[in-house]
Amino acid sequence: MHWIDGIVQGVLLGGLYAQYALGMALMFGVMKIVNVTHGDLVVLLALIGISLANFAGLGPWAVLATLVPIGAALGWLLQRALLNRVVGNDPLPSLIATFGLSIALQNAMLVIWSADTRSLSGGGIQQASISLGPIFIGVLPLIVLICATLLTGGLDLTMRRTRFGRSLRAASADVEAAAMVGVNPRNVYAAATAIAVGILGFAATFQAMRSTVAPADGPFQLIYAFEAVIIGGLGSIWGAFAGAMILGISQAIGFRISPGFGILAGHLVFLAVLAIRPQGIFQRKS
Amino acid sequence: MTPLLSTHGLIAGYGDMRALHGIDLTVNPGETVALIGANGAGKSTLLRAIMGLLPVAPEMIRLDGKPVGGRAPHHMVREGLAIVPEGRRLFTGMSVEENLRVASEHAAKPVAEPWTLERVFTLFPILQEKARTPVENLSGGQQQMVSIGRGLLAQPRILLCDEISLGLAPKVVREIYAALPEITANGTALILVEQDVGLAQRASHRLYCLLEGRVTLHGTSGEISRDAISAAYFGASHALD
pLDDT tens across B210-224, in order? Predict the structure, then answer.
């Protein structure tokens, strides 16, 4: 029962990681843009949300409804002002540009919010749980998992079935050829990054409700998002979701083995996937 | 009459290397114009410049007399240009149908009878069979058909075709060239870049020969002699042999 509980808690934790990973799946997996600010944007949005709750008196769901459009606007701006200048077949320019921005963002957040850890009050929902026999399932983690599943399904359908999804995949396959058939790659990329960072509005709200955030936390979330996308396989939306689940389960089981081993267990599973199946679990071939 | 497309002293190149030294060319509605010339003569560069893929001055390219030089490729599509690029440049990882739909979803406003997926499938029936196949699994000839279909679904008034016979079996080349009259029947003009001079001459109304980035010969395809072509193709010194 100990282990079944570990897996259940791992899946629930995976729900949060999936919310980090979806935007990364879109940006890194599909557009081949390395966005080092990914985690910092989660933290930035979370801190904005906490301030909104403290100073404007917004409840957690109102914070979520505000952070998603703020995230989308930030993403659009990030792509228009910075990433469209460095996008291309070589991921190095985007890595360098966003690495610099990441440091600047962390320090700017330190100035505004100080190094204190903060969290968002959920009005009691954090403590609520449902018992299934001997296993307790937290209501908040369950909501997170349901949101993650719906977001994954929605994003996957958007990529496969919509005009926007086809344009984005075409531009990722051959940006010049896409322009030759009438796609404006800059607009398509700006919309994609807006979606990617908009989804981080969910991740930010739930991260701030589940635990705490501080300005220097971004890189951890960045690593989890990268790992989930690479475990799942580049370009696969459901793959990123599955990668997030694998990461969550590995960590939860690792914590049961020894409290200090949890995070490391996730990294070890990631390295094992990279060694055995470098193209990712859901990728047909490299 | 204002030509559909005209270039005026068109100069273009890659970085510091200039590949075109002042090209004057006109294309009228419904006309098929062939561009011939040796490798490196500037044929593909000319098509790329017209399509907006290379920086040029506005006055150097006119559509309906309106200067459009230097606009982005997606603007050129909206103005009624489309290209079947060298090397086909299909969207890998996407099916035949998806490749075609990207084009139809960003097309110019159709002029006469619009191109639809059904019409492209009638023109190239094999594509209907392969509609759900990823394009990387098609043969070279089938890929070329997708690339042409993609160009047509942009609803062009002028379709630029860059070496559509390159690397294909003679039978497939005949099949593809047999489809061209159906394309021009609507009034769509074609610019054909073609290695096979005989084929280019037979398939076109007028012909331009390029040599080292300049037009060395231009005239009605049916009236130009082989000698005139070889002089223009290789340069005057070779013609004396």
Answer: 999 999 999 999 999
Helix boundaries (H) for chain B = 43-51, 73-79, 96-104, 117-123, 125-129, 140-153, 170-178, 180-184, 197-203, 226-234, 236-239
**A86 burial type by CB count under 10 A (0-12 exposed, 13-18 middle, 19+ buried):** middle
Q: What is the mean pLDDT of residues A154-171?
A: 96
User: Which residues on B lie below 8 Å from A176 (Cβ)?
Assistant: 53, 73, 89
User: Residue B15: what pLDDT?
Assistant: 87
CATH class of A2-276: mainly alpha
Report CA torsion sign: A131, A133, A136, A139.
Answer: negative
pTM: 0.91
User: Which among A160, A164, A180 is the top mutation candidate for probing chain B, defined by the most B β-carbons within 10 Å of its own β-carbon?
Assistant: A180
The rounded distance, in Å, linking the Cα atoms of A83 and B182 is 43
Q: Strand, coil or helix: what is A205?
A: helix
Residue B110's pLDDT is what? 81
Taking only residues 75 to 104 of chain B, the set having a beta carbon closer than 8 angstroms to any beta carbon of chain A reads 77-78, 82-83, 85, 89-94, 98-99, 101-103
- Predicted complex ipTM: 0.92
Q: How many helices (H) and strands (E) does chain B have?
A: 11, 10
Band of pLDDT at residue B197, cut at 50, 70 and 90: very high
Domain ranges of chain A: 2-276
